[in-house]
Amino acid sequence: MSNLVIFALIILIFYFMIIRPQQRRAKERQMMLSNLKRGDRVITSGGIYGTIVGLEENTVTLQIADNVKIKVERGAIASVLSETEGKTF
């Protein structure tokens, strides 16, 4: 019986230390991607900095320089930069 309790305790610890935080991060990322809007300054997972100039269901158009626009998958957006971070490019 004590082996069963120890096994259940290990599973519970595993859930709260690994699975639960991963679910929280995935939910936060999904919320970030769904809240993207024109004018947001972002960085892609490939390290490209840009400003969102167009949004579609699955793609985002970024302006990375004057008269240079690229289209990337929405999932390729790694993070939205704050106002102070975005001023550097």
Structure characterization notes:
The chain has 89 residues and is of the alpha+beta class. The chain has 2 domains: 1-35; 37-89, SH3 type barrels (Roll), CATH 2.30.30. The protein is 42% helix and 31% strand. The protein has helices at 2-34, 83-86; strands spanning 41-44, 49-55, 59-65, 68-73, 77-80. It has a 5-stranded antiparallel β-sheet, with no helix packed on it. The termini are far apart. The mean pLDDT is 92.
Q: Per CATH, which architecture of the largest domain?
A: Roll
- CATH fold annotation of the largest domain: SH3 type barrels
Spatial gap, N to C terminus: 62 Å
User: Structural class, from secondary structure content?
Assistant: alpha+beta
- Beta-strand portion reads 25-35%
Order of helices and strands: HEEEEEH
Radius of gyration, in Å, reads 19 Å
Principal-axes geometry comes out as rod-shaped
Calculate the mean pLDDT score and round it: 92
CATH level 1 class label of the largest domain: Mainly Beta
Tally of DSSP helical segments: 2
Q: Helix content range of the residues, please? A: 40-55%
Main β-sheet: number of strands, strand sense, barrel status?
5 strands, antiparallel
Stretches where pLDDT is under 50 for at least 5 consecutive residues are: none
Q: State the total count of DSSP E strands.
A: 5
Q: How many structural domains in the coordinates? A: 2
Give the spatial strand order of the biggest sheet.
4-3-2-1-5
Provide the descriptors you would attach to this structure in a database record.
single chain; 89 residues; alpha+beta; SH3 type barrels; 2 domains; five-stranded antiparallel beta sheet; 5 strands
